[in-house]
Amino acid sequence: MQRPSYGQSPPLHHPVPQHVSTVPQLRSPPPPTSQPHSQGYDGSPYQQQQPRVASGGGNMFGQYGNMMNDPAAQLASQFGQTAFKQGQEYLEQNVSRFISVSSLKHYFNVTNFYVINKLYLVLFPWRHKPWSRKQAVGPNGQEGWYLPPRDDINSPDMYIPVMSFVTYIFLQTLIAGLRGNFQPELFGYIATTALVVVIVEILGLKLGCYLLSISNESQLLDLVAYSGYKFVGVIVTISVAEIANGGNGTGGWIGWTVFFYTFLANSLFLMRSLKYVLLPENNSDNRAPMQTMQTESRAKRNQRTQFLFFYSYVVQLFFMWILSRP
């Protein structure tokens, strides 16, 4: 069977696009010229997005920034300030019953030059002269009050005793830590021991002053200051002994040598410095006979000198030995 023949087929035509499109060339846009170069411009040609400011009058904290404008918050703030002021006044009134705040400030009026020279005097008091304290001249030309520590090397201060007390506590706990025996309870134990030593010493001094009829206006604060200077010698003893003995405590001939040196230095320092406190000028009754006044004054002075020697050497030896133990 023969296939029928058909006419010639028309040629194929491909579709031709009617709208010619060209691919744009990508170019970096020029830097913005409308805005000047600011401090925050980092060289990027694209405009940085500005941070959005929260509503509430431009406050960056939003609704929390208006808390101080709340009447309740203002009332609470005023109440807190009033309570703090009343508490401060109450504390000053109650503390002033026992210790004068102005007198206490006198003992902390020190300088770096005074601290260095005072430490040198406590450790090397052998050739120091004079030991008498300086007094300011009053309006009437007479000697008035004692000069502060910054103006008188012989004046007692509270700065060195307090710093030495705190340093002693940290030094003892540091040595215990280096030996592997550190415990948090050591801070309380060492601080309590040192504080008990100071309190017992002050009570003994006050009792002796009472029995010997010794009175002084600034006696208590002076005695507290002088009782704290022993910590300087104790710190030196512990430090040198630990370094020399390789961490074996204050034993050995080096430790005992340093201990006796610091003990003698502290004793001489107290013996010379406490003369104006424990051996004041005796203002006896002028109506008594001159011979009787001289006899009583000589007897009282001998008793006070013995008491001063006992405190400066015997008492200091016992307490410094307790504090120097590991």
From TrEMBL:
Gene Ontology annotations for the cellular component aspect, listed alphabetically: COPII-coated ER to Golgi transport vesicle; endoplasmic reticulum membrane; endoplasmic reticulum-Golgi intermediate compartment; Golgi membrane
Regions that span the bilayer: 158-180, 186-208, 220-241, 253-271, 307-324
Entry's localization field: Endoplasmic reticulum membrane; Golgi apparatus membrane
Single GO biological process annotation from the record: endoplasmic reticulum to Golgi vesicle-mediated transport
Domain of life: Eukaryota
Keyword annotations of the record: Endoplasmic reticulum, Golgi apparatus, Membrane, Protein transport, Transmembrane, Transmembrane helix, Transport
Membrane topology: Multi-pass membrane protein
Spans annotated as Disordered: 1-65
Pfam families: YIF1 (PF03878)
InterPro entries attached to this UniProt entry: Yif1_fam
Keyword flag NADP: no
Recorded family membership: Belongs to the YIF1 family.
Reported function: Has a role in transport between endoplasmic reticulum and Golgi.
PANTHER family: YIP1 INTERACTING FACTOR HOMOLOG YIF1 PROTEIN (PTHR14083), YIP1D-INTERACTING FACTOR 1, ISOFORM C (PTHR14083:SF0)
Name this protein carries in UniProt: Protein YIF1
Annotated organism of origin: Cercophora scortea
